[in-house]
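re: ur question from earlier - yeah i can do the single chain one, its not a big deal. heres the input i used so u can compare w yours
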Amino acid sequence: MNREIFISVIESIKEQTTRDCVISNGLTQLYGTAVPVYDNSFLLKAIKDIILFHFNNQKEVLSEIDHYCFFCNFGRIEKGDEVLIETPGELYDRLVSEFIVH
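and the output i got, formated as C-alpha cells:
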C-alpha cells in the first residue's frame, strides 16, 4: 500500500464517519429519540486488516490508527489553547518509520 492509497483510505473512513453522524443526528431530530450511528465495525475491521498486512501484521499499527481516527478525531490534538493536526500523510510517514523494516 503506497502513501496515496493510505491517505485515501483514512480520508474515506473520516468521510464515512462524518456522514454516519450527520444521518444519525438527522434521524434523532426527525423521530425525537436517539438513533445510534450505523455500525460499520465489520467494514472498518476489514480495512484495518488490509492496512495491517502492509505493516507486517504488527498489531501496534492498529492501535495507532484507532487512536488517530477515533481518540484524536482524525489527527486533531488539543494542547491547552493550541490545536495540532497530524495529517493522514504524516501518520503514514510515522507508521512507516516506526513499523516497516527497511
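Helices lie at 3-31, 41-54, 60-71, 88-99. not sure if urs matches, ping me
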